[in-house]
Amino acid sequence: MTDTQAPNAGLRQRLGVLTSGGDAQGMNAALRAIIRTGIERGLDVYAIYEGYQGMVEGGPRIRQMNWDSVGGILHKGGTVIGTARSDAFRTREGRRQAAKNLLEHGIDRLVVIGGDGSLTGANLFRQEWGSLLAELAELGEISQETAAAHPYLLIVGLVGSIDNDFYGTDMTIGADSALHRITEAVDAITSTAASHQRTFVVKVMGRNCGYLAMMGALASSADWVLIPENPPAVDNWQDVMCERLRAGRKAGRRDSIVILAEGARDRNGKTIGSSDVQRVLEEKLGEDVRTTVLGHVQRGGAPSAYDRILGTLMGYGAVEAILQAKPEDEPALIGIKGNRITRTPLMECVNKTHAVADAIAAKDYDRAMELRTNSFKDSWRTLMTFVRALPRPAPEDQKHFRIGVLNAGAPAPGMNAATRAAVRLGIDKGHTMFGISNGFQGLADCEVRPMDWMSVSGWVSTGGSNLGTSRMVPKGSQLYSIARTIENNHLQALLIIGGWPAYEAAYKLYTERENFPSFNIPMVCLPASINNNLPGSDFSVGADTALNSIVEAVDKVKQSAVAARRVFVVEVMGHYCGYLALMGALATGAERAYLNEEGVSIHDLTRDVDDLLRGFKSGKRLGLMIRNEYANPVYTTPFISALFEEESKGLFDVRQTILGHLQQGGDPSPFDRIQATRLARLCVDFLSEECNHDSQRSAYIGLEAGQIHFHDMQDFPRVIDAKRLRPRNQWWMDISKVAKILAQPGPSWQNPEEKA
Ligand code: ADP
Question: Is the pLDDT at 192 greater than 90, yes or no?
Fold first, then answer.
């Protein structure tokens, strides 16, 4: 009998975690969250190295983790515990061996991070667990007592997959980072293609899912897209594609970019490869065509801010689910829907995921698209408008209106993408679109110009505000000037893209309607501010880019300290809104986020000094605190830095870093481009609808918990904290507790005797 189970097994619950199948950026964030949350909740947590292969091999492949084992890994791509494909685990014998190896450590709870294959394997393993243990006991490999002590295997799954191909979650871990790589590549290709007036074919990943190709195209200025779920409707798609590209050139485009997913096919199910597309384009357009196959670059590189946060929240959610799981429960898949962490029965998700692949294989493309989410379908429709060389002929049976678009407040990355989308989608509906320069100042100064389809060409990828923006909130005679501009240009609706001053100004116009009849037109505000401090919306356009800029800057700042014992106090923007500080802390592993919402007291600072001293005495080498710019008027960044330095007594030194305007600049992230485009489309629909009904409704749009709402402008003062320029309720404040758990000093630093 070789029952090697640890003698004290059973005293504490033991959780194993593994990454399996293809790697994805953000898996490390999930690991860190699972291991630290597990330890904090009193579990013993084991990492199973090299996926199921490590589980079958056992021995050093299964190792207990401590708090510090997962320090300094958030910024790393891939998975630090390795992943593998395992043929052995596909056999019953292999799974029996895997069960035995888990029992050697008393592990009967598992979090599996992988794709559909890995999660299918996990479910099978769970179903077989009882019989595998019976066999092991019969063979004398484990004792009957051991088998009886572990009657169930509890499983929770997380999807790590860059393809975003999974039912049950809006996003999979890694998809956002892959989209970053694709967008960076297509932006770079666009600039060289435009210089030479060339045509490029770009192939991206996605065997059964066109998400990356479609979103990559929406976030760049691609001109044609081929995805598995929705092949070209006609057999002579080659002619249609070339005709479109030719028309685009005629309309003034300097480049043509075709993006195709690796699973692209025609209606008959015949694969369309990048070389097929290249050949067709060369033959029919008579042009030199270049192909770029992005390949594994998409899996590589540092995870985006979103993937770090997603991995962290899913990892935290997985441990909560394991702790609450009952043996009779179906295993759960942890997903994110409408920005909230969810649990869905694992196998239902796996089966529905397979259903899409089956529909594609059966050439039932209608069904494949039907199985996709509404936002996928919406994005596809929007993309089909954008890839047009020119707008469709204006529909005659519909009324057309004169719509003004302006940017207001500080520049936010993605404002141009929103303006471009509004202009093109408005023109496509037959409206006349006007660009207003320099925000409400420009409206007062009558800086209004008509915008045509090509006037916004290339705007999707540029930061700043091409229209020009200002912070002016009109008053007094400025209101007269604005009224005159609206009347003189016969503007019938206004789309206001911007931050706090944009909302204030729109509200001002709304409240002055009695005095200025020309303000009685529908108006809508689209949230665009890096601060993410606007009411009615979970995310404002620009915040994701700013967060990525913060994360990239902090990664560099941390690297600069490799040789010293140092604490950084990093100050980020946000006005009185702590979103960037909290999410920045979560994504960089900072131990502290100072927020205005939570306040900062001398008691907090004393505790932070004590934690730092204890940490550095126990071998810590780097400290990171992130402070919102208005966290506290007295405990400023220089104050906190000086306090830490003084109290460190030479144990560590302190540097302050004020990130400043780099947070407002930069090319917009793919998420901001996509969000800007989506919101702009909805705003144009809203204004068209209101104009059609002779309504003068004024509203601000927002996406809350995945739902689109248009909030009446009259609600604005009721939902805001006017003194602190932020909404009264901020959904993300709940996440503060996760940040606090994960960032606390490890137990060994809290109680040095535990270090052994
Ligand atoms: P992904 O999880 O990314 O879909 P794979 O399909 O390659 O990747 O699966 C990863 C590993 O999960 C496989 O190498 C195998 O060990 C295990 N696995 C996949 N499918 C099954 C299955 N039906 N039964 C048992 N194990 C499986």
Answer: no
